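Milestone 3.1: sequence recovery, worked example.
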């Protein structure tokens, strides 16, 4: 499945727009700002800095007439990444400390609070074996988020998330597309 993300310079889908159907590392060369957007198909992660850096926000199919206010950003979308559709099993190991240290728990479904479920107060590294996941700063899928695709993530601090704790995790399901 191909995705389609359309960003507009002004609120309510006004002004110049840019259509993106795959990853885009730097949208500033196409438009100076983005205040509204539409996802016609697929799911996308957007970032407030080029090269998929900075704050992240997840968009699924729909219209977002004032996405800057919705996300609480003062700036604009600088890069976006299409999330591929996935229909297999989900599996992720979360670790209390960096470099896969401390307590480890294996997850195969959503977790609205690692504190409630595992009595784990912090998650500082993870290994995503299967599926695509969103990790959230607060319990119950609130706060800033980070997109995790299959791979090893040895240190969230070294990835630029030093002051952030991840307290809930959710699978990106095919029904979201």
């Amino acid at each position: 499945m191909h995705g389609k993300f359309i960003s507009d310079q002004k609120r309510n889908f006004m002004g110049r727009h840019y259509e993106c159907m795959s990853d885009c590392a730097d949208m500033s060369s196409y438009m100076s700002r983005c205040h509204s957007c539409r996802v016609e198909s697929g799911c996308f992660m957007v970032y407030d800095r080029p090269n998929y850096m900075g704050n992240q926000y997840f968009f699924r199919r729909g219209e977002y007439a004032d996405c800057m206010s919705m996300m609480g950003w003062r700036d604009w979308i600088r890069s976006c990444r299409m999330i591929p559709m996935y229909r297999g099993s989900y599996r992720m190991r979360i670790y209390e400390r960096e470099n896969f240290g401390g307590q480890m728990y294996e997850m195969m479904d959503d977790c609205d609070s690692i504190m409630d479920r595992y009595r784990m107060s912090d998650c500082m590294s993870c290994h995503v074996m299967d599926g695509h996941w969103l990790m959230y700063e607060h319990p119950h899928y609130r706060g800033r988020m980070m997109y995790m695709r299959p791979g090893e993530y040895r240190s969230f601090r070294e990835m630029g998330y030093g002051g952030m704790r991840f307290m809930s995790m959710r699978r990106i399901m095919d029904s979201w597309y």
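The CA atoms of residues 40 and 122 lie 36 Å apart. The first strand starts at residue 4 and ends at 10.
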